[in-house]
Amino acid sequence: MLAILAQADKTFFLPPARSTVAGLHDGLYNFVLWMSVIWLVLIAGLMVYFVIKYRRKSPNDKPVGPTHSTAIELGWTLPPLILVMVIFVWGFRGFLQMNQAPNGAYQVIVSASKWNWAFTYGRGEKDSVLHVPVDTPISLVLTSSDVIHSFYVPEFRIKRDVVPGRYNKTWFQATEIGEYNLFCAEYCGQQHSQMITKVVVESRDDFLAYLEERGKWWEGKSPVEVGQTVWNDNGCKQCHSVEDADGTGPKWNDVFGAERKFADGTTRIADEDYIRDSILNPGKNVVQGFDNVMPTSQGQIKDPEITGVIEYLKSISKNFDGQLLEPFPVTVPAEDGGTPGAQE
Ligand code: CUA
User: What are the start and end residues of each CATH 1.10.760.10 domain in the chain?
Assistant: First the structure.
């Protein structure tokens, strides 16, 4: 019966099991659950039965029977002891299995920050969605740049705290191609409930193609498009609206070219260098009326992405008087090597 429970794919309480460790966890969960149900029924049933059977039927009734029985005492001590030991050994096996990635597991670095997940693969490829090949052990190294978060994928039955200033580890092996929700399971501030992303489990070939594309994902895209993708994928949008509404951070539209007032009373025109500064050293110029809460993107964002953000901000600012998106006549040098002339 336990073997059947351990292999159960889906229970009344749990989502489908989609990792190699899920069976063991569900088996233990079901064992504890059904043991509790059996004991509850047994104990409560006997209590009710005894209350009725041994009730005082007349005023002359006196208590009867032995006041001590070694056999009964052993009977209610040993079986629970054995059960608790079974649960301990079972749980400890699961604990070891959860903590020891098999040799040769593929490593992904998980960086959490308020309120965003970032995944970094072997050659520096990065994304806000976790892609992994199916039937392959994946080891995760988890760290946070601000507060405690928690990496949680219900279908895989794995949950691990992500703690600033240290590296936690876990691993999993997905058993079925598909998309699964990845939640933050530790209250981490105002937008904790929005800190959700996906795990995409795909075939090995699809995963390799994905890595190839992800390496230089901005190629073939306009800088404005690159910036918009960074805003969407790197978590900028959690705090920075582009629709004229301040959030945890200042809105992004109409920022480029505007004069910014800072908490320390100084001002600065929002040009290209200002925006680069704000991404890499967000604490340097904190805009008046906002808290200094933005994590730095130093080391996590590449130059073409920063350039993209700058161009994106231009494209949504009425203070930028150039033009970005229309086709533009290209200037070519004259044949004789003289001064370049505009195209006719
Ligand atoms: Cu991060 Cu909750």
Answer: 223-315
Q: Closest ligand 1 atom to the C-alpha of 184?
A: 2
Q: What is the mean pLDDT of the chain?
A: 86
Q: Which atom of ligand 1 is nearest to the CA of 185?
A: 2
**Does CATH number 1.10.760.10 belong to domain 223-315?**
yes
User: Which atom of ligand 1 is found nearest the CA of 189?
Assistant: 2
Beta-ladder partners of 22: none
Percent of the chain with pLDDT over 70: 90
CATH architecture of structural domain 2-99:
Orthogonal Bundle (1.10)
Can you give 106-171 as a three-state secondary structure string?
EEEEEEEECCEEEEECCCCCEECCEEEECCCEEEEEEEECCCCEEEEEHHHCEEEEECECCCEEEE
Mean pLDDT, range 16-25, rounded to an integer:
89
Q: How far is the CA of 299 from the centre of ligand 1 (A)?
A: 22
What ligand 1 atom has the least distance to the C-alpha of 148?
1
Dump pLDDT digits (tens) for 45-87: 999 999 999 888 888 877 777 778 899 899 889 998 999 999 9
Domain boundaries for CATH 2.60.40.420 within the chain: 106-215
Ligand 1: list residues with CB < 6 Å. 112, 115, 149, 184, 186-188, 192, 195
Predicted model pTM: 0.65
* Spacing, Cα 2 to ligand 1 middle (Å): 36
Element (H, E) at 267: strand 267-269
d(CA 101, CA 271): 48
Query: Which residue intervals of the chain bear CATH 1.10.287.90?
Result: 2-99
Q: What topology is assigned to 106-215 in CATH?
A: Immunoglobulin-like (2.60.40)
Q: Rounded CA gap, 147 and 163, in Å?
A: 7
Q: When comparing pLDDT for 183 and 64, which is higher? A: 183
Ligand 1 centroid, distance to 56 Cα (angstroms): 59
Q: How does residue 328 score in pLDDT terms, banded at 50, 70 and 90?
A: low
Residue whose CA lies nearest to ligand 1 atom number 1: 149
